[in-house]
Structure formats: structure tokens, C-alpha cells
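Troubleshooting log. The previous structure file for this entry was overwritten by mistake, so regenerating from the original sequence record. Sequence copied from the archived sheet and checked twice against the printout by T.R.
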Amino acid sequence: MQSNTLSLKIKLFRDKKSSEINYLYKKKDPSERPMVLDVLLQAQEESVDDLSFRYGCRARNCGVCTVDINGKPRLACRARAKDNDVISPLATLPVVKDLIVKRDNISRQLIGFNNIASKNNLNVEADKTYHNLTACIECYACLDGCPLHKKNKPVEKDNNNAYPFGNPFSFLKLQRLYIDPLTPEEEKLGIIEKAKSLGLETYRRDYKNLKIKCGVGINLKEEVIKPLLNAAYGDQIEKKNK
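Regenerated output below.
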């Protein structure tokens, strides 16, 4: 017999202190399979009226609703809620309040490297790899397990400086710009130097054991990290990992 409720835990972070509440989600009907976002919206409406979290499109297009569910990043709008789930903010970014994390220290890494000097030409067509990378929704799930991002130790939400070390997201942005047919050849060297300055070498040393996962299924290892490494260090990455 199907239950009319789900029992979950929601972690709250306020004034540098963490707490946990038990929340009983009331299904609209016994067959309902709610998303985690549905749980948060109901909890805010009925129990914790100042519960803080982000969401936008509700259709897996924007990535801003990403939270940790049982310790792993998931899109709240597309993750089915289950009994005993634990909902918490992304562990890889500093918490502002409750489930809201500070995201802009990553985007600051790309200042000066997200503009194309050439005028748009609709007759210039990018290849399939470029279009694959445009599927990124900036959910930052790829930060989980990244050995390079761990070096940033992102704990202070009041720090507005760009993180010194890169991550799969920032390298995806650089790789997409690198293979963009509108990017002039003379700018590509600067893109590779930027990747090196963000610590690309760390991936090179342990490429074989690198485990990074994209929230929407982009093959970050093969489509982002490997081509950047090859552009930066020639075929050395191929020889090193055979």
C-alpha cells in the first residue's frame, strides 16, 4: 500500500551554524512521485516560511536549483524525492543561507575570457563538439570530486575574489571558446595560458584516474579536459596515460 507522505531531512545553515529539520511531505495523491523542489516549496509554504533556496526554469535548463541530496549534487527540479533523503546545500561552494550558495567566485575566473572580438557571422558553423558543450546549464555539479577545485577551499562567502584554481566548469568555458570558429587564432594562445594558470597541470598528472561528472551528461574528461591538455602539452597526455 502506497504511503501518503515522505519523510525527509533538510539541512539549514544560518549565522554560521547548521541545523537539521525533519520534514514530512504530504503527497497530493498516493501515486505522486514529487521532485525535491516540490518538497522544498511545500516546506516553505507550510513549515519554514523563510526557507531559502534557488530555482528558476523547473525544466533542467538553468541549473540554479542544484542541491546536494544524500551528499551528491542533483537538480532539485529533476531529482525524485524518496523517504529518508537528506537535502543540503552544495558542499563544494560557500553557503550564504540554508540551501543558497555563493556561485560568482567561479565566474570571476573568466573575466576577460568570455568575449569574442570577431563580429558574428551566421555563415560560420561550429562542429558537433562545440554544440555538445553548449548543453552546460551551469549547475556546478561537476565540482564534486574535482581534485583541482578542492584546492580552493571555498568556505568564506564574503570573499569576492576569483578562485585561484580551476574546475571542470571553467575549463569547459575555455574549451568552448577555444574551439569556437569565431575565436581568432591569435586569441587561442591566451586561452591555453589561462587554462594553465588555473592549474590544468593537476589534471595532467592524474588524468587516468580523474572522475568528474556532469549534471547533464557532457563527457567532461574526453570533450573538455583531454583536448585542453593536448592543446597545452601536445601529445604528452596520450603517452603519459598509456
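The longest strand covers residues 5-14. Archived copy saved in two places this time.
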